[in-house]
Structures are given as structure tokens and as C-alpha cells.
């Protein structure tokens, strides 16, 4: 069933677990995610990232995600990931998305607040949840654009500013920067749990962890215990899918393209099952 992000994360808060967000730039990735959630009877979030519009436009994949969510026996949120403008947000809402992220974190603080407020006003009128970002989420350059920079105080989310930001914008969830990066990790991540706790205490809303694939089981559990309710998990699953395809290609002759899509989907399904099991404390 299709649910808003707010509803999905409220239950997660009550149960002290996190809901996995999986990006769906292909039909296989969406089906792998839904099948994993159905197998485990766990809630999930299917996302279309605005940057993936180059791979598949939202007009094509969006209705598929909404349909998969409506037909699922588990709660599914359909979410726009890293939306950069109101036009894209409106497009997602028209298609039937139940949640959007507006990422105006590159703007000045005041501009970020104003942009997010405008999106919240529009989205809430349509019963759609909003996630926004404060602080700068960097990328490793592998599976994500290299944003460079490593000065923690400048990049990480300030807990006091987070409080002000949430009060002014009335968002439903906050993407906070506390040590994770997008893409494949080059160095072991160093997570700032104190900062995460302070942010969560100050905002009293669910915290979203971006760059959430590639952490250890212990790190996932710690972040959940410190207030993370949504984990954006994708790069490592996408890498696992590609590795499975590579192995299949090396082991078989006379290969057809459609066989590869099945191999990729099954690997994503297994990878997502492991992730969901950890996020929801269900055990693998
Ligand atoms: Zn992100």
C-alpha cells in the first residue's frame, strides 16, 4: 500500500527501526526492492533520484513505482530523492509520489529555508511529506559526483541550526550530515554520534541518513539507536548487482540481455533483504 513518508517513519519511530530507501533507476531495481520487502513483510521507500532522470525520466518510472507501491502488501512510500526545484517536486506529486526531498542545501541558509517552506506548503496541501537537507552531504566520487571538501565543521549539520530550520520549515524529516558520504567509501566512515543525538533531540523529527550503504551492521544499529529512521541505501547494492552480472557473463556463453536483468534483479533482492533485515531488527 502507498503511504506517506510521515506515516512510514512514525511507525519506525514507535518501533525503533529504520526504513530503507532504495533508488530505482531501472525496472529491475524497483522489482528487486519490492520483492525483498514482500519477502520480509517490511516497509520500504522506493525512490527516484532527480539525477537519474538521465537514465530514466520520472514520467516513465514514476507511475511504475506508484503502481508497485499500491499493489504491495507492505507499506511503501514513493519518494523523490534530491529534488532541486519546485517544478520537479510538482511533477512528482502529479504522478502520485507520496513524499519528496527538496535539496536546497547548496544555497545560503535563508534561501534554503525559503525554498523548503514553499515546497512544504505545496506538498502538505497535497498530503505529501517533505524531507530537506541541512549541511553538506559529500560524495566519494565513486558512484556519486565528487564534491570534494572535508572540513567537518563547515560540512556537518549544526544541531542548533537544525532546530531553527525544522521550526521554520515544518518538514517531516531532516537529512543530516554527520559523517556519511554518497557513493562507495574510499576511507572508513567516521560517524559523529554525539552530533546525531543532539540533532535528533533538538528537532524531534526523524533523521535521514544519506550515503547509507557500505556501513557495518554495528554502525547501522548505532545510528538507528541515535535517531535515524530512514536510511538511503543504494550504491553498494548497485555494485553487487553489477558484480553478479559480471560473474554470470564470465561463466556463461550465448547470453541474452534479458538474462542479465534477471541476474541483477535477484542480486538486488538478496542485497536489499540483508539491509532491510538489519534496519528493521528482523535478523537475516
Ligand atoms: Zn543523498
Automatic annotation (TrEMBL):
CDD domains named in the record: TBP_aldolase_IIB
Active-site residues, record numbering mapped to chain: 81 (proton donor)
Pfam families: F_bP_aldolase
Cofactor(s) needed for function: Zn(2+)
Cofactor remark: Binds 2 Zn(2+) ions per subunit. One is catalytic and the other provides a structural contribution.
InterPro entries registered for this protein in UniProt: Aldolase_TIM (IPR013785), Class_II_FBP_aldolase (IPR050246), FBA_II (IPR000771)
Name this protein carries in UniProt: Fructose-bisphosphate aldolase, class II
4Fe-4S listed as a keyword: no
Recorded superkingdom: Bacteria
Gene Ontology terms: biological process: carbohydrate metabolic process
Keywords: Metal-binding, Zinc
Molecular function terms from GO: aldehyde-lyase activity; zinc ion binding
Entry binding sites for Zn(2+) 1: 82, 182, 210
Binding residues for Zn(2+) 2: 103, 133
Amino acid at each position: 500500500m502507498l503511504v506517506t513518508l510521515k506515516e512510514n517513519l512514525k511507525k519506525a519511530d514507535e518501533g525503533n527501526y529504520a526504513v530503507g530507501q532504495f533508488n530505482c533507476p531501472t525496472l529491475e531495481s524497483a522489482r528487486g526492492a519490492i520483492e525483498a520487502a514482500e519477502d520480509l513483510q517490511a516497509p520500504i521507500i522506493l525512490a527516484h533520484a532527480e539525477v537519474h532522470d538521465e537514465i530514466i525520466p520520472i514520467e516513465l518510472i514514476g507511475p511504475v513505482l506508484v503502481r508497485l507501491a499500491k499493489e504491495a502488501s507492505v507499506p511503501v512510500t514513493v519518494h523523490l530523492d534530491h529534488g532541486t526545484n519546485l517544478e520537479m517536486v510538482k511533477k512528482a506529486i502529479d504522478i502520485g509520489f507520496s513524499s519528496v526531498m527538496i535539496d536546497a542545501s547548496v544555497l545560503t541558509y535563508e534561501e534554503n529555508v525559503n525554498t523548503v517552506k514553499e515546497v512544504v506548503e505545496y506538498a502538505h496541501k497535497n498530503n505529501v511529506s517533505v524531507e530537506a537537507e541541512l549541511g553538506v552531504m559529500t560524495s566519494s566520487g565513486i558512484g556519486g559526483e565528487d564534491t570534494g571538501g572535508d572540513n567537518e565543521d563547515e560540512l556537518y549539520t549544526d544541531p542548533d541550526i537544525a532546530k531553527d530550520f525544522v521550526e521554520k520549515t515544518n518538514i517531516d524529516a531532516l537529512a543530516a550530515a554527520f559523517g556519511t558520504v554518497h557513493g562507495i567509501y574510499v576511507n572508513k566512515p567516521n560517524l559523529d554520534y554525539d552530533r546525531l543525538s543532539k540533532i535528533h533531540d533538538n528537532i524531534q523529527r526523524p533523521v535521514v541518513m544519506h550515503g547509507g550503504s557500505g556501513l557495518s551492521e554495528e554502525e547501522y544499529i548505532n545510528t538507528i539507536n541515535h535517531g535515524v529512521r530512514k536510511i538511503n541505501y543504494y550504491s553498494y547494492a548497485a555494485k553487487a548487482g553489477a558484480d553478479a552480472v559480471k560473474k554470470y557473463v564470465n561463466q556463461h556463453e550465448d547470453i541474452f540481455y534479458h538474462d542479465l536483468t534477471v541476474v541483477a534483479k535477484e542480486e538486488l533482492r538478496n542485497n536489499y533483504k540483508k539491509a532491510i533485515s538489519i534496519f528493521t531488527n528482523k535478523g537475516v
